[in-house]
Structures are given as C-alpha cells and as structure tokens.
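Notes from the 1:1 (GR / supervisor)

We went over the backlog. Supervisor wanted to see one worked example end to end before approving the batch request, so GR pasted a single chain during the call. The sequence is below; no edits were made to it. Supervisor asked that the structure be written out right there so they could see what the output format looks like.
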Amino acid sequence: MSIWNTLKTHAKAQFLDVIQWMEDDKNTIVYRYPVFNQAIQDGGKLVVREGQFGVFLSEGKLSEAFGPGTYEISSRTKAISSFFESIKYSLNYPYKGDIFFVSSKRFTDQKWGTANPIMLSDPQIGPVRIRAFGAYAFRVTQPAVFLRELVGNQGLFSTEEINGQLKRKLVSMFADAVGESKIPVLNLASQYMDLGDAIRERLSPKFEADYGIQLVDFVVENISLPPEVEKMLDKRTSMGLLGDMNAFTQFQTANAIEAAASRPGAANPMLDAGMGIAMGGAIGQQMMGAQRAPAFNPAAPYPAAPPPPPPPALLHYNGAGGQGQFGPAEVAQKVAANRAGQHNVWMPGWPGWKSWSEVPEVVALVPPAAPPPPPVNNETFHYHGDGQGDFPAGVIAAKVAANPAGRHLVWKNGWDGWKEAKTVPEIMNAGGPPMPPPPPPFPG
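Structure output shown during the call:
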C-alpha cells in the first residue's frame, strides 16, 4: 500500500460519523465506545437504541443522559454543544474522553445467597442459624449515578462484576428483615413472598439513590436450617406420628436388641441389649416430660416388666339368658337383650344369688333403656273432608298431613259446631311432627 493511501486511511479513521452500540451480550450493562485519539465529526450522529442510554464523560464531567433516539452531533444540538463548551473542547477536535452506552433493560435471574449462616433468636426453637438463597432482578434508571458510583470508581461493566456489590447489600437487608419480623423459623415457608416484597420495597429506593439501580424483583426461594437441626425436627415429626410413647419405647428396644444381636464380635450381647433398652426407655421418658432417668448400671438387675391387669372375675349366671359362667360385660349384654326377664348372678363368697341390679360391675355396663313411646290418642271425632265418618285423632291427623290445603272439619259431643281439624290440639298432636307454617300470600 502506498504512503498516500495509508495517510488517507488514518485520516478517515480519526473522525466519528455514527456513534452507536450494537448489543451482542445480554449480560453487558455498560459499553465504552472506542474513541481513543479520534475526533467527533461535526454533523455526525449519536444513535441510542431502545433499552439504552448514551452519556459523554470527560475531565470528570458527565453530559446529560440521552434516551432512545437519533441525535445530531453539532453546535446546533444544545445538550451536546453545551457539554463540549463546558470541557473546553470543540467538535472536530480529538475527543479525550469516553462515550458510554448504559443498558436500561431488566436484568433477571440474578442469584443471591448467604455466604455464611445468619444467627437468629427463634421464639420456638431458640438460637438457630439459617441459610437462604433466591433470585433478584434490577435495571439502571439513573445512568449518571450508576456511572459515577460503580463504573467510574470500580470499572464494573457486566452483571457478574456488580453482583458481588449488590449481593452484600441484599443479604444484609435480608438478615435485618427476618430478624425484625419475629416470624418463627418453622413458619417462614409461608412468608417467602411477603418477605421478598418487603425487602424489595425497602431496598429499591436506597439502591436507586446510591447506585442509580432500581430493584424490580426479589424472590426468596429457600430458607434452610443446619443439617443436625433438620434431623432433630424430622425425629420430632416422627414422634408426633407415633402418638403412643409406650409403643415408641418398645420400638426402640426392639431395634437395640436386633442391632446388638447382629453386631459381630460383641463381647456381651445381653449387656448391649440391656443398654439399648435403657436408652429407649430414657428417650420415651424425656419426650413425655418425665424426670431424667438415672444412669444405667450394668451390674444392677434389669427391672421386670409390670404384669398385665388381671382378667375380670367370672359370675355364675342363671336367668333369661341361660346358665353358665360369664364376665360382667357378657351379663350386661344379656340384661340389655331382655330387660323384663330375670337375671341372677352369684360368685364365691356371696351368701346367696343376687339380681343383676345389685352388682355395680354389671350395672355400669348396661346401657340405659330406651324411653317409652308417647301415649296414643285414640279419641274419636266426627269427620267431614276427605271422606266422612268417625275416626280416631291419629287418622284425622294423617288426612290433614296428606292434604294440607284441603278442608278437614271435625265435631264431637259438647261442641257448639264443626271446627277445622288444624285448630284442635288433640288431633294435631296425635300424629307426626307439627305442620309447617303456610306460605306467604302470592304477590298480586
């Protein structure tokens, strides 16, 4: 290439006609446009695309932030010309500053988590350490503040580079929010959304003022306890499912005996089994709130299990249910089956036979007798309605119930005249439930 062509190439490269950022990385927040030793062409274009800001920076001064649009770079563009005048540079002069493009889109699925456990005082468990993790989303709303605080001082240009700064603030605020909420750790799972919203509302204004960043979302995905605490909670849950602590003690004892019998080279299997039994009993007593069990002494004899309760004494029975020897419950069943019959019982030591009603053990097991039915009203009335004739009160009540809208007249000796059957208490109380009230009149 000739010297002339080389000079033309360098001369052409010194002027910037179109300044724009063609985004090619979704994680890039700030793009520094390459302007080293180049002049901005008077009449050139600054192209800011959707989701971007454009900012000039020179001699520590920032221009206004240019939103989406196309701007002419000339002395006629007030915002641009006033900036170049303030830094004592004119257009077409080598620009000794920087041009930044700042992405204003939402950066989602940014992960956060507690590097170290957070110590809390839980009202149910007591002092406990928790870990938590989740995700958040942000976007730049104040590009000048963002460039001044993060890019200018620390040179951070991607989400990976500024996440460390944001995470420390997020985790610190999360610890404060959980501690101030006083929510028991076991109930935090139902408060994830409320915690996330509270932290976002509290942090977003501070992030915007300090860093020019708006926190648009904060999600708590999980809050976990130390593994040893989770194991104890699982055991506590299993104990709640067992319900019967005696059954749990027997279960622990059986496991201890089986483990001792299957362990090879055991010096004294019976001694190991005894220790397992004692441990099972101690755990059962502790869970039931009993006093602390004494230390196990291998030389002391193991206490025998208490004997089962003795069976109920049998009664000699003679009555409507036959003859034989039966327990109190069986005698009570015979009495309930035939209350009108005789049911006599005797057992050794009694001077003679007794009625079942004189034996408290049997009386306590006999269910109460059913109440007697109400008396039947057999009073007869002269009836005129669905037929005619003399009928008992119960029959007339059934006719009224079968045809409530019909006319049912009755009369008996001593009355001045016929009456509606519905107005006679002796009839209406003679059969079935009381009549329902009449429906309201049809609106006319």
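Supervisor's comment: The chain has five domains: 3-103, 107-227, 243-292, 315-363, 380-428.
Batch request approved.
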